[in-house]
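Tutorial handout. Part one gives the primary structure; part two gives the three-dimensional structure as tokens.
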Amino acid sequence: MPLKIIQADITKMQVDAIVNAANVNLRMGGGVCGAIFAAAGADQLQEECNRIGKCPVGESVITKGYALLARYIIHTVGPVWQGGSHNEAQLLYNCYKNSLELAKKHECRSIAFPLISTGIFGYPKEPAIHIAISAINEFLDTHEMEVYLTIYDEQTLMLAERIFATFAE
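Part two.
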């Protein structure tokens, strides 16, 4: 099943798992992270995250979905953009790869990602989209899963669709 790029609110996705663009301390943050915590039930989710502790950059951990339609939340910590010379591309790639592997391990048939690291972590959207599509497509070459890349705003959606079209050529 191919990757689908859609404009959507990730907190309302009816999938087995949604991915949270988390911070290393797994604390409720702003942006997509704050929205996911609020929609899931911040207190319960924070309690489970506190039990897990930390998550290194590029890695992923899983919690229950609580009040979300999704059964699970996969928390992954994207790199903070530092100009591109601090292994950011590989770390971002690992976020997608490790999240997909964790979803597979928990028998998820569907997963929705936000565009990781492009908010307050400052990763430029164009290369971030290329990395997301590459990592997801590589996984889908050998695995069956319904994968969504959810984009919040129209401008980024148009950019993502344009980049995605170049992969299909």
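Part three, for discussion. DSSP finds five helices and six strands in the chain. The mean pLDDT is 97.
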